[in-house]
Amino acid sequence: MGKVFVLGVGMSKFAKRPEVTIETMGVEAIREAVDDAQIDPKQIQAVYCGHTWQGMSAGQRVMAAFGFSGIPVTNLENACASGSCAIREAFFSVKSDRYDICLALGVEKLTGKFSGAITPAVEDLEASLGLTFPSLYALRAHRYMETYGLTSKQLAKIAVTNRKNAYYNNKSSFGQLINIEDVLNSRMVCSPLHLYDCNPTSDGAAAAIVVSEKIAKRIGGKPLEIVGSGLTSGKFEPGFIDMTFEDMTWRAAEEAYKMAGLGPNEIDFAEVHDCFTIAEILRTEGLGLCKRGEMVRWIEEGVNEITGKKPINPSGGLLGKGHPLGATGVAQIYELVRQLRGEAGQRQIKGAKVGLAHTRGGSVTGTEGGACVVTILKGP
Amino acid sequence: MGKVFVLGVGMSKFAKRPEVTIETMGVEAIREAVDDAQIDPKQIQAVYCGHTWQGMSAGQRVMAAFGFSGIPVTNLENACASGSCAIREAFFSVKSDRYDICLALGVEKLTGKFSGAITPAVEDLEASLGLTFPSLYALRAHRYMETYGLTSKQLAKIAVTNRKNAYYNNKSSFGQLINIEDVLNSRMVCSPLHLYDCNPTSDGAAAAIVVSEKIAKRIGGKPLEIVGSGLTSGKFEPGFIDMTFEDMTWRAAEEAYKMAGLGPNEIDFAEVHDCFTIAEILRTEGLGLCKRGEMVRWIEEGVNEITGKKPINPSGGLLGKGHPLGATGVAQIYELVRQLRGEAGQRQIKGAKVGLAHTRGGSVTGTEGGACVVTILKGP
Fold first, then answer.
1. Which of B57, B113, B249 should one mutate to test binding to chain A, selecting the residue with the greatest count of A CBs within 10 A?
2. Minimal Cα–Cα distance from B91 to chain A, Å?
């Protein structure tokens, strides 16, 4: 079986866009990806579309709007990890020699559907009793603070950093230059998490052209190899749960590292699922990029900043770009590609050779969720 | 790349089960499939779950109820073809050597969600103006009757045949021995389609264990090879649409035939998407199993009956089993396996060596839809 590459990427502006449909945003993203890959849209053989709440046959609707109906489309849902699953299924279908050129698409429109925190699934007992996402992550933040001496100021610094990264990202309308006081003075959502500790509601779409080695060689351009992919789900087991760690994240990472033949030390930078400031800490440590509890020092020393030794969320992450669920995972691949090609402009990480993307989604039970995906891309 | 096999199948009773959850039905189906495959549930490495309206992370919820959380689960949506896409993605992931043992799952609960015809997507302009599924298929029936001389009595005979097949299928609660008059005297839904020309609302789940050749050989049992798989979407183009044919069905079939190295003449029997009596005709002809217009004679002569030369929907199809969207495609594979192994009891087709399954789903625009899947299984 051959290697699999990302040949081109595109994304719509991530913003509150109440007047714009997923079809319009999807087409924006696909156009950029197709141009970037230097392919003719007619060459796309199959589409994998990740989304959560966009209704039946969302991928087909976007493709019809793009003007290329009649090709196989498969819609995927894994909550906040839906887009990453689109990347993963495109990867499998190219690897199994079924297709040479696939489009992985992620779309989501949240404005008009939700105001405030995203509604947990009605089936989720703990959530319906009040353990929504903000309150769950607030509990986890308290536990981490108690265990490792993390302060609210340090949490706030993550919000400041990620919004600054997004400020230099023209695909985000949420980036801004704020300071620690702005975060601490913002409205308290669920102690210790202020408004700026939470990611904003956003609409958006992202696209990636995933191809076989044969096509990558023929077309040229700047293909980046997908060297690792991991997917797992949370374990729903009774008993003690350590809220300062994510077993699920580590298991998905382990699969991806093993496939890539790489370890955490060889990852130069990562896009991780920072739905809250505390989440960036939990994921970075869960991925093994940082020892447990060490993120406190990292934040103080700026290790996770673009100029640091292990930049996290150079795109601005979910905190800085917002989080249109299905689009998020594909947008992470967009950032990995831009960084690895040296095309990230003012937020460029120097000498980045290997990047990792991490999303997780679904049920809020304990520290576990419905799905966690880790993808590793290697530079040219 | 190795061959891919279905090693075991299971399904819940298809019925109106308002008091039962998808978790309960899913577990019923998985238990039977696991027993049938003679594997330990712990051997399942990944799950693909097809469903349409069961909310976020449905597959994860079913697996947690089954007591095996922590393994990768991917949810797929392609309207009425969702379950078939679960089979297809399991097929790809085994073929690409990622996993050796996958579970393809389909679940859907419709009672309590819908009464009467399924609501078309809100985004579908024609449907919201009245071109719902019954009215679309009524138009197609009129056109076919006009072109090929089909009568209401002949349509009714399909309803009689499929409900009789289902009567001998203990997995269906809808099977019954009715006659042509019963159909013609049933309430008119949309002329020329009577109530019995339409499939009933149903709840249900189905499961299939999809494995690599290595596992099939090691475990033994009665593995059946997936020799062909095709997926396509409808073309949304302006201009004349021939409502008596399905280009989309033919394109999906063509892909599957090509992969299998088989033609329509080598297919011994088929499960096709008979959401309405007229639909069985359109699909059988669309698949090339029968020449265009020839189904009129087939019905008269009973060619499509279990004792005929080319049995269609021996399980009872959607008309006889009901149509729990996500579960339907996997339940078709259940029937193919039972028939090819000679385990279909009173509805057994003699000497069946190759079976085909066909689903289609999504938007009602013209004769095209959002997705069409064709799968071909070969006997031992």
1. B57
2. 10
Question: Hunting for tokens 């992620």 — which residue is that?
Answer: A106
Which among A53, A37, A62 is positioned nearest to A208, based on CA atoms?
A37
The predicted complex's ipTM stands at 0.94
CATH superfamily of the A4-113+203-226 domain: Thiolase/Chalcone synthase (3.40.47.10)
Q: Is A51 a catalytic residue?
A: no
Contact B92 A97 (CB under 8 A): no
| Domain boundaries B125-199+228-378, corresponding CATH code | 3.40.47.10
Q: Residues B51, B194, B273, B323: which is the catalytic one?
A: B323
**Helix-strand-coil split of chain B, %, nearest 5:** 40, 20, 40
Put simply, whether A46 touches B (Cβ < 8 Å) is yes
Helix-, strand-, coil-residue percentages of chain A, each rounded to 5:
40, 20, 40
Q: Using CA of residue A281, residue A286, residue A292, residue A298, what is the dihedral sign?
A: negative
Residue-wise pLDDT tens for chain B (380 aa)?
A: 789 999 999 999 999 999 999 999 999 999 999 999 999 999 999 999 999 999 888 999 999 999 998 999 999 999 999 999 999 999 999 998 899 999 999 999 999 877 666 666 666 677 778 888 899 899 999 999 999 999 999 999 999 999 999 999 999 999 999 999 999 999 999 999 999 999 999 999 999 999 999 999 988 888 999 999 999 998 877 777 889 998 999 999 999 999 999 999 999 999 999 999 999 999 999 999 999 999 999 999 999 999 999 999 999 999 999 999 999 999 999 999 999 999 999 999 999 999 999 999 886 565 677 899 999 999 88
| Annotated catalytic residue B142 | no
Q: How many CB pairs under 8 A join A and B?
A: 148
Touching check for A232 and chain B: CB below 8 Å? yes
B77 near A CB under 8 A:
yes
Q: What are the tokens at B240?
A: 């004349």
Angle at the Cα of A171 from the Cα atoms of A134 and A58, rounded to 5 degrees: 70
What CATH homologous superfamily does B4-111+203-224 map to? Thiolase/Chalcone synthase (3.40.47.10)
Pick one of 3.10.20.740, 3.30.450.20, 3.40.47.10, 3.30.428.10 as the CATH number of A125-200+228-378: 3.40.47.10
Chain-chain contact of A92 with B85 (C-beta, under 8 angstroms): no
Taking the C-alpha atoms of residue A171 and residue A168, their distance in angstroms, rounded to an integer, is: 9
Q: State how far residue B193 is from chain A, nearest Cα, in angstroms.
A: 26
Write phi, then psi, for B209 (nearest 5 degrees): -95, 115
Sequence length of chain B is: 380
What are A42-63's pLDDT values in tens digits? 999 999 999 999 988 899 999 9
| A72: nearest CB among B69, B233, B235 | B233
The CA distance from A339 to the nearest CA of chain B, in Å, is 28
How far is the alpha carbon of A112 from chain B, nearest alpha carbon, in Å?
A: 15
Contact B74 A61 (CB under 8 A): no
